[in-house]
Amino acid sequence: MLQSISTSVSSSSSLLLITSRISSSSSASSTSFLSFLKFPKQPLSFPTNTQRTTISTTTPKMNWLGKLGLGFGSNTSMNASSSGASEIAQSPDEDIPSPGQEFAQFGAGCFWGVELAFQRIPGVTKTEVGYSQGFLDNPTYNDICTGTTNHSEVVRVQYDPKECKFDDLLDMFWSRHNPTQLNRQGNDVGTQYRSGIYFYSPEQEKTAKESMERQEKIIGKKIVTEILPAKKFYRAEEYHQQYLAKGGRFGFRQSTEKGCNDPIRCYG
């Protein structure tokens, strides 16, 4: 067809006529093709929260791979001066404990088993699991599992200092994990599993450092536990709270009775 068109062109007016016809034909074809496309009736919307550094397209109830140490997120921490950093997340924990009570905050690997251990201590009146020490405001479990927000899985313990000393909590803390492993507890690997003591007062800081020195002599190895001021505490999703006491993965409730020495099954 192109050959026959070429041979028929004998003047500029003929060329103009053919060009006009081809243009008209192309326009009609385009209109016909576009008529088969379906466009959304509503305008597209995009996230407006500039504090978020990751956008998840799915929201699973539980990241089991992360809990089993099989996640594929990066273990590198976000720099605090990066565009995703939040001053809110880096602010002190300003929550107030009940009258006559005090707060303490610990990171010792997966927070399920750690919480149950603290629940059993006489004088502990409340425990909550959550996220702290990171750069992202209002993080989700999926966020911290990426390894880019620098959050630690922590247990915030409320205790009565008349019945329970901070040293008692520290003793439990050291016994529940290996403080010589960096960003790892057993098969759980990542920055959220790091060892940390997050203090609320100069007295707690002093006691924590002295306790770490003693513990280092006992085990004869370098301890990598970080001792830092307690920062804003973000309460974890409800299904994480008292996870093992509620039955864990398999529905077998584990005792929170004070003084209980039953072995703790970390994943239920």
Strand order of the largest sheet: 7-6-1-3-2-8
User: Helix and strand succession?
Assistant: HHHEHEHEHEEEHEE
The strand count comes to 8
Low-confidence stretches: 1-66, 68-83
The percent range for helix content is 25-40%
Explain briefly what this protein structure is.
This protein has 268 residues and is an alpha+beta fold.
Primary descriptors:
two-stranded antiparallel sheet; globular; 7 helices; 8 strands; disordered N terminus; 268 residues; six-stranded mixed β-sheet; alpha+beta; 28% helix
List the helices and strands and how they pair.
Layout: H1 2-8, H2 12-34, H3 64-67, E1 102-108, H4 111-119, E2 124-132, H5 141-144, E3 152-159, H6 166-175, E4 184-185, E5 188-189, E6 195-199, H7 202-219, E7 226-229, E8 234-235
Parallel strand pairs: 6-7
Antiparallel strand pairs: 1-3, 1-6, 2-3, 2-8, 4-5
Architecture overview:
- The structure is a single chain.
- Residues 1-66 and 68-83 have low confidence and may be disordered.
- Helix 6 runs parallel beside helix 7.
- A 6-stranded mixed sheet has the order 7-6-1-3-2-8, with helices on one face. A two-stranded antiparallel sheet has the order 4-5.
- Helices cover 28% and strands 15% of the residues.
- It is of the alpha+beta class.
- The protein is built from 7 helices and 8 strands, in the order αααβαβαβαβββαββ.
